Amino acid sequence: MQTVAEHWIEQGIEQGIEQGIEQGIEQGLQETVLDILNVRFDTVTPEIETAVTTIDDLDQLRYLRRQAILAETLDEFAALLPKS
Fold it and tell me: What is the pLDDT of residue 9?
């Protein structure tokens, strides 16, 4: 039988693992978006790179990954990014 303290520790470890997995997915999507843009348009401005790497919403990053493939120009893609 676990003590309350052991239960809290286990719960904290599980939450940490979940957060780590989500952060890994987030970083992977950010890198994928930037890689696609680099392949398609040869260069990515520092402003676009900063905008993409500050997004932490997974749904938005998935949307941007698709748009990085579909956008006709880098400016068209940049217009989809949140304004800071």
Answer: 87
Q: Long-range contacts made by residues 47-52, C-beta under 8 angstroms, separation at least 24?
A: 47/78, 48/74, 48/77, 48/78, 48/81, 50/84, 51/78, 51/81, 51/82, 51/84, 52/81
HEC secondary structure over 2-24: CCHHHHHHHHHHHHHHHHHHHHH
As a whole number of angstroms, the distance between CA 23 and CA 68 comes to 21
pLDDT in tens, 41-75: 999 999 999 999 999 999 999 999 999 999 999 99
Q: In which band, very low, low, confident or very high, does the pLDDT at 12 lie, cut at 50, 70 and 90?
A: confident
